[in-house]
Request: fold
Amino acid sequence: MTISDVAKRVGVSAITVSRYFTNPEKVSADLRERIALVVAEFGYVPNLAAGGLASARSRIVGMVIPNISSPIFANTIQSFSDRLSLHGYQLLLASSYFSRELEENAVRAFLGWTPAAIVLTGHFHTDATETLIERASFPVVETWDLQPQRKPIQVGFLHRDVGRDATQYLFGKGYRRIAFVQNSGTGDYRSLDRRDGYTAVMAEHGLEPILFAPTVLPQLEAGEQSFEALMKRDNPVDAIIFANDSLASGAILSAQRKGINIPEKCAIFGFGDYAISEKLSPSLTTIRPPAKEIGEVAASCILALTGAIPQDAEFQHLNPLPCELIERESA
Amino acid sequence: MTISDVAKRVGVSAITVSRYFTNPEKVSADLRERIALVVAEFGYVPNLAAGGLASARSRIVGMVIPNISSPIFANTIQSFSDRLSLHGYQLLLASSYFSRELEENAVRAFLGWTPAAIVLTGHFHTDATETLIERASFPVVETWDLQPQRKPIQVGFLHRDVGRDATQYLFGKGYRRIAFVQNSGTGDYRSLDRRDGYTAVMAEHGLEPILFAPTVLPQLEAGEQSFEALMKRDNPVDAIIFANDSLASGAILSAQRKGINIPEKCAIFGFGDYAISEKLSPSLTTIRPPAKEIGEVAASCILALTGAIPQDAEFQHLNPLPCELIERESA
DNA sequence: TTGTAAGCGTTATCAT
DNA sequence: ATGATAACGCTTACAA
Reply:
C-alpha cells in the first residue's frame, strides 16, 4: 500500500496525502478528515525510506554511547530518547565501549540514513570521524564533556573541575593521604580528566598523589580490590576518590563486611550518584553529574536546530551543566 | 557523492559498485581493489534510504523495551545490539514504559523503514499492534516471556514458574508466612505472573497469600517501605519475595540500618541478580534471569531468518531459557 | 563478470 | 488549496 493508493481512494493526488502527513495545515479540513479515514482503514504507514530519499532528510538521530549498562549513560539515553520521540524522531543507538574505532563504524553507518543529527559521547575521535562530522550537513552534538574551542555543539561539564572539587572537599575536611582509583575499564578518558584535577590539587597542596588502577573487571570487585590494596599499604591512605560510584560502593560494601569504620578509618568519595549510593551504610558522598539534563539539553539543541521547536534559546549558554557535590556519611 | 560518481571514477557502471557492497565476491578482485580505493579516497557512504527503497529491505532492527534504565533490560539490549552490529545491522530503540500504546507508536514508526525485524518485550499488545505484527513480512520476536500457542517467535521463560520456584524454595526452608511484594511501577505484567506462581504454591500448601504493593516510586525506597510495612503487621511475615532485586536491596539495606537480622527475623528473596545483590550484607538470594542470553538468542533468530547466518539451529527449541536460583545469605 | 533499463515510494518544484 | 512532473540514489531483472 503506497501513498498513491491512499490518494486514489480519497480521490486526490499523492502529493496532497503527502502534505497531509508533513504539513496538515496546508490541506483543507474536509480532505484531512477523508484522508485520515482511509489511512486508518487500511493501516497505511508511509515508507520512510522513500521519503528520506526524496527529501534528503530523515527523523533518525544516531547516538553513540560507551555502553548502555552504565547507570550514568542510561539516564542520558532515556531522557534524550524521550524528548526526541515526543517530536517523532527515532533513536538509532550504537555502543562504542570506549573504542574510537567502533565509534567511527557507528558514525559511518548512521551517515547512510541522512540522519537529522548525530550525538557522540566526548570529543575523542579518530581522524576519520573528525572529518566525517566536520563535513556533516546536520547537527553533531558531543555530550558528557567540554573542550574549549571545538566546533561541534557540546553538552557537558569539565571533568577536571569535578576531580578538583572532590579533592578540595576532602582536603578541607582534613584528609591528606588521599588516593584516586581509576576506572578498571580502559579508555574512559573522562575519568582520567577527573584524576588530573585530583593530582593538580594534590600538587598545589604539596601532597603526593596516590594512584591505583584495579586489575579486575566487575566494578564492585574492582572497588573492593582497590580498597583492600590501599588500606594494606605501609602508609595507608585516609581517603579515596573513586572514578565512579560502583567502584566506591564496592569499597563500602567490603568495609562493611570487614567491620572497617568509614569514614573514620578511611573516607570514601564517588562519582555518579547512582541510586544505591544514598542507601549504603555509610551512605556515599559523591558528585551527581547532570546525566538526565545532558540528554534533555542535547535533544533540545537538535530539535531547535532542525526547526522542530522554536530556536529562541542559545543552548550553548547552558554549559557547563552543573554537577552537585552531595555530602553524605562516607566522607 | 553517489554510487554513480564512484562508478565513473573507477570507470565501471553503478551496478558494479552496488555489487561491490552487497556481493563483493561477484566482482573481480581487480575491480574490487580499484573501487575500494575510490571509496576510501572520497569517503563515500552508500545512501541507505535509497537502497532500502529499491530493495524493500533494510538492516534496521526495531526494538521496544519497557525502559533502558533497568539492569534487567540493559543487558538484553546490550547483548542483542552487540551481536546484530557484528553483521551490519543497526538498532532502532524505543521505550514503552510498560504502555501498550507507546509500544504501538514505536512499532508503527519502525514499520516505515521496512525493518529486517522487530523485537518486542512480552506478548501484551494493543489489538492494532497485534494486527500489524501478524501482517508483517519480517520476523517479529517477543522476548522475556513465553505464551503457549502464540505465532511470533518467543525468547524467554515462564515467570509463573519463577514465582513458584521461589516460593517452593522458601517453603522448603521452613518459612510459612511468606509475602510477595509487587513492582511499584505499574504495567509490568510479568511480575504479576511471578506473583501468580507464588499465590498458587501458597494455596497448594494451604497458606494464605500476603500481597503488598508499595506506593512510592524509586525502587529502593519502595522496597524499604514494603519491608517496614510487612514487619509492622500484627502477624509479621517471616519471608518476603520481591518482584525484583532493587526492591529486595531496598529491604536489605533498610534492615541493615535498623539492625534487623536477615534471614533470622525475615528472609528476603529477589529477582534479577543485579550486580549489587551478591555484595550486600547479607547477600541476596535471588533468581538470575537469562537477560544476556535473551538478547543473544533473539539476535541469532533474526540473523538466521534473514539469512545472515546459517539456519541450522531451530532456536525455538532453546525455550524456555533457563533461570538460575542463586542461594545466598538472605534466604 | 559486467552492463542496461526500469522502477522502488516519496517529496521538491513549479503551476494552476 | 491542489496537482503534474521530475527527481532522489539505489537495486532488480534481464541481457550480453
Notes: The first strand of chain B starts at residue 60 and ends at 65.
